[in-house]
UniProtKB/TrEMBL annotation:
Protein name: mRNA m(6)A methyltransferase
Similarity field: Belongs to the MT-A70-like family.
Cellular compartments per GO CC: nucleus; RNA N6-methyladenosine methyltransferase complex
EC id: 2.1.1.348
GO biological-process terms attached to the record: methylation
Catalytic reaction(s) noted: an adenosine in mRNA + S-adenosyl-L-methionine = an N(6)-methyladenosine in mRNA + S-adenosyl-L-homocysteine + H(+)
Keywords linked to the UniProt accession: Methyltransferase, S-adenosyl-L-methionine, Transferase
Pfam families xrefs: MT-A70
S-adenosyl-L-methionine as UniProt keyword: yes
Length: 518
């Protein structure tokens, strides 16, 4: 027999009223529940019919009754499964449907508003668990409910197939940079330095920092017979920082706080180091070019397999005067503005309002922007992003490491505290569904290099977010920032190099008109 929705009304009342069906003496046994329900409702069922009724009830109540086995209609009472769990919210939803009302499931109150989502419901676990008490004080129900809630959370938090595929893709396409440990045995570094570095015959190199690594390694190898096995193995496997002893070095002063970024390296009396990388650079190339998992993701897998990435492009210009529309649109932008931070910098800076009034809205219809900011400029940066039409989605930081791979404690910036990190605001424009999310984290730990130079890791992150083939722009970039797939603009770049025909054409046109006009 096929039941109608309204036929289940009395069973809903029955379950809500009898809060001890799973408990003694019923223990969820169907052959007891059946007769109890018949007595309650005045309906008549055979055992077999009652099982059919339960099967259909579960269909309309979203599987609110759980049994310890599959429900199969049978006349053999002993073989019927036992009811082990009642999903109260499911029963209440059905009750509301029967009454033609909308239920606010977190309070069990009927409302005329739109229904509260299951998500809202499970986000208020305390309230809902308490509300179970009126059904059954039995802890098995509460526990089983908790269990169910956990499963729900797990489901909600489970990465989507797309995320998993993107992670898999990222794993295959990102070269694994070997991680070398640093040797902390001073005696090792001192010994290696005396054998390979602190020699008179290197005077023609000027600074000892300039001695090529392989020359030092060759010298150490010549002394192999007098080096202990332990030191030799360590020299092969770990990074060593060899103390550089110059005539002017005063060992009592200790380490130079700027180390390899010291501006007065040639005369500095503090101790400096030469970085000797491990001899066994087992650069295993983990990217298997044949293992492209092309067919699955949105992104750029397919193009990655069969199309070359655009070679690096750059334009030397003053960004304040370059007409942005000639550049076209970009999926991602990195901008490291020369903020006027009242510090002496080896390049010119821009005023806040000059930066804010850049026509950034021309560069993206939808996509991401990463804006480097420091101290005071964090606030200006936020304002700028909002003004340019972005929502600020994230903030990343770069934790700066010094030459010895330790956190910088005496940075050159910071008025009150020494700055050991830099901030990057991440803005989003439009709703770019093609962005590969949840691959990277918002913290990058990486050594410092030249003044203002940012770690390459950020380019890799952007490329994973928007794909290697999409158009990407760096504003205020320098020669060392140029990269395949990127257009770099800035006033310290060497000349112009463009390969995209449209961009080239528009740029030439602009140049012609600007020279004719001037
Ligand atoms: N992110 C870069 C450093 C950028 S420093 C890196 O990783 O190396 C800021 C750069 O912006 C400097 O090269 C500076 O010369 C340049 N710059 C300053 N004002 C500019 C302007 N009006 N137009 C173009 N470039 C400018």
């Amino acid at each position: 027999m096929i039941y109608d929705l309204k036929d289940f009304g009395s069973f809903v009342q029955f379950i809500l009223k009898h809060n001890d069906l799973l408990d003694t003496p019923v223990y969820g046994q169907i052959w007891i529940i059946g007769p109890l329900f018949q007595e309650y409702s005045g309906l008549k069922f055979t055992n077999e019919e009652f099982v059919w009724f339960l099967i259909q009830f579960n269909m309309v109540s979203g599987g609110s009754l759980k049994f310890d086995n599959v429900l199969i209609p049978s006349t053999n009472l002993q073989s019927l499964p036992k009811l082990v769990w009642i999903n109260l919210p499911g029963i209440l939803i059905l009750q509301s449907r029967l009454q033609g009302k909308v239920l606010d499931i977190s309070t069990h109150r009927e409302t005329t508003n739109s229904p509260t989502s299951v998500l809202d419901f499970i986000q208020q676990p305390d309230k809902t668990i308490k509300s179970y008490d009126f059904l059954s004080p039995d802890t098995t129900i509460v526990n089983s409910f908790k269990f169910d809630k956990d499963i729900l959370f797990q489901l909600l938090n489970r990465p989507t197939s797309r995320t998993q595929l993107n992670k898999d893709k990222a794993k295959r396409h990102i070269p694994e940079i070997p991680f070398y440990h640093v040797c902390n045995e001073q005696a090792h570094s001192q010994l290696l330095a005396s054998m390979g570095l602190n020699k008179k015959e290197y005077s023609h190199f000027g600074s000892k920092h300039n001695i090529p690594e392989d020359i030092i390694i060759q010298r150490i190898l010549k002394c192999k017979s007098i080096i202990s096995n332990e030191v030799f193995r360590c020299f092969q496997e770990k990074i060593h920082f060899l103390p550089i002893i110059n005539n002017h070095t005063d060992l009592n002063l200790g380490d130079c706080s700027y180390l390899d970024t010291c501006h007065k390296m040639k005369t500095c009396r503090y101790l400096h180091y030469y970085t000797l990388n491990p001899m066994q650079k087992n650069q295993k190339d983990t990217i298997d070019s044949k293992s492209n998992n092309s067919e699955y993701t949105l992104g750029d897998c397919f193009s990655q397999a069969c199309r070359e990435v655009q070679p690096p492009q750059w334009i030397n210009c003053d960004v304040r005067y370059l007409p942005f529309p000639i550049l076209g649109k970009f999926a991602a932008i990195i901008s490291d503005p020369a903020w006027d931070i009242h510090m002496s910098l080896p390049y010119g800076t821009c005023k806040d309002d000059e930066l804010l009034s850049l026509p950034m809205h021309e560069l993206q219809d939808e996509g991401i922007i990463m804006l480097w900011v420091t101290g005071r400029s964090i606030e200006v940066g936020r304002r700028a992003l909002l003004k340019w039409g972005y929502k600020i989605y994230d903030e990343m930081i770069w934790i700066k490491l010094n030459q010895l791979r330790r956190t910088i404690v005496t940075g050159r910036t910071g008025h009150w505290l020494n700055h050991s990190k830099e901030h990057l605001l991440v803005g989003l424009k439009g709703d770019p569904i093609w962005i590969n999310k949840k691959i990277d984290t918002d913290v990058v730990v990486s050594p410092t290099r030249e003044t203002s130079r940012k770690p390459d890791e950020f380019y890799d992150i952007v490329e994973r977010l928007v794909g290697k083939h999409s158009r990407k722009l760096e504003i205020f970039g320098r020669d060392h920032n140029t990269r395949p797939g990127w257009l770099t603009i800035g006033n310290q770049l060497q000349g112009v190099s463009l390969t995209e025909p449209e961009l080239k054409h528009k740029y030439e046109l602009y140049k012609q008109t600007s020279t004719t006009n001037s």
